[in-house]
Amino acid sequence: MELQLKRQSVAINETLCRTTVEQPIECDALLPDYCPDIVKILRCEVTPILTGNQVSGSQLTVDGVAAARVFYLSDAGCLRSAEYKIPFSRVVEIKPSSSRPVVRVSPSVGYFNCRAVSPRRLDLRGAISLSILVTACREEDVVAGAEGMGVLTRGEEREVTRVTGQEVRPFTLREELELPSDKPSIRLPLRCSGFARITDKKQVAGKIVLKGELKLHVFYLCDGDDNQLDSTDHTVPFSQILDVDGMEEQTRCIVSLQVSSLDVQPKADPDGQSRVLALEAVLEAKVLCHRNETIPLVSDCYSTQYESSCQQKTVSLGRLAEAVDESHVYQESVDLPDGAVRILDLWCRVQGEEFSAEAGKATAAGRLLISMFCSMEDGGMEYFDKTEPFTHEIDIDCQRPMEFLGEFSILDVGFTSSGSGRAEIRCEIGITGPVYCSEPEAVLTSLTVDEEHPKEKDPSVSLTIYFADAGENLWEVAKRYNTSMEKILADNGLTGTVIGEKRSLLIPM
């Protein structure tokens, strides 16, 4: 019988680029005409927002906007703010690939300085840090089985995960929200934040049906009084159907949300009062698709009839161990800063992100930056912040080497004054992302049998006694004596392929 080889295409997730680059941000800005002059800058808050990326050959282009909001005191001692959107683009060299790559970019603020050159002119300087990971699925052709010419193979089935694609789907929410009856009318929004959360997800026929909510917080200047500040919170539910190319019934999708744009404008109600908020928010749903496959792998072979040779290669086979979708709640009672009477507004962001996985456990760690505006005993206003470290651990059913490609998002922030110069602060942090486990596997890439050189056998020998040591592998024993491992197992009443203790073996020839 001629040699018949069965070949299999195996998906190998290959890293094309893993780097961190610093992107300078510069802006010479003027205050809008409707803003009063600057007397004192309290805070410059910078949020990096990615607007897209594109791979062309050996280059990755990352586009984004650094949204800088400057909070300052006017000559009347009132809090004001102005926002500036500074676009940026960065080109990074990557290893070219014939397949569609999966791009992951995590932006963070490296440093940022804001200086008032004059009462109406600002100098903004800083840098955005971009952590970039680009991977692609490479096909490796391996031997999955062989028959004929006395060939025996050693192999087993392995479950691997193929990353089938990545999609980014933006959608827009538009809503008109009325202020609660106990809130004063709005003159001007000073700071707005939106937190997007997925409450339900279903996969049907190449589509993902998302249900969720956007929590909106608006800190604003009240109408009719330059010194009166207030805030309002609203929850906007949404439902969205996302088309995902190539998604099948068995595809496992990880979906995360990002608020890429948030605009809130005051609007008059039927009575002419500025008590309506016109909201326009752009959300981006990022979908990462996986498909599990069970593949037969051959790691070694030999022929009992002819001389043979094979080529082996070590590859790293990855599997999706866990699709993390959890939250971590930070809650603490804190003392107000010295001289502070009460908190006017408070918000949070995560810095110093660190994700790791080992020994059956994934860890997400970071530093929570808590920022606040406070009214002071002297009647003024100041900005304060504090940093709190946090760690969140997740049990993972895998003891192999792992990698956690996580990301954080703020899901909710709140505070209440507890009296006696203290406040209760609560922040919910979303943690999402895949945990991949991998292990090097020896695979067979080629096999040749030389039928012109048959193996010599002694017809007078039908059985050999072999004294095996504990821990010896029966496959290696069978290969050495040019026989079948299955025959050794049957003749010796064994079930395992590794010798448990030192003993003699009957080797059929």
From TrEMBL:
This is DUF3794 domain-containing protein. It comes from uncultured Anaerotruncus sp. Residues 37-114, 190-265 form the SipL SPOCS domain. InterPro entries: LysM, LysM_dom_sf, SipL_SPOCS_dom. Residues 471-507 form the LysM domain. Gene3D superfamilies: LysM domain.
